[in-house]
Design brief:
Radius of gyration: 11 Å
Largest sheet: 5 strands, antiparallel
Helix content: 25-40%
Structural class: alpha+beta
Order of helices and strands: EEEEEHH
Number of strands: 5
Strand order of the largest sheet: 1-2-3-4-5
Number of helices: 2
């Protein structure tokens, strides 16, 4: 599972053997948030939250939204 982005203590990963829809796994301090990246012009959405606090969830969603095009391209590069 490659880490495709690291910022502000967040590790954003894409599993190589994962499934659609396009999503990322955001980890910080042992907590995990799975985020659907969303299509262009569509806000990312929470798919699963494992122990991430609300304020960190908001920051993680902003991080994914700010890097939406990059993360979509990384997903496509990994999954073909």
């Amino acid at each position: 599972m490659p880490t495709v982005l690291r910022r502000n203590g967040f590790d954003v990963m894409i599993y190589a053997a994962d499934h659609i829809p396009i999503h990322v796994h955001v980890k910080k301090a042992g907590a995990v948030l799975v985020v659907n990246v969303g299509a262009e012009g569509e806000a990312p959405g929470i798919r699963l939250n494992k122990e991430m606090k609300r304020n960190e969830v908001r920051r993680a969603l902003k991080l994914v939204a700010a890097n939406q095009a990059y993360l979509t391209q990384q997903w496509r590069d990994i999954h073909g």
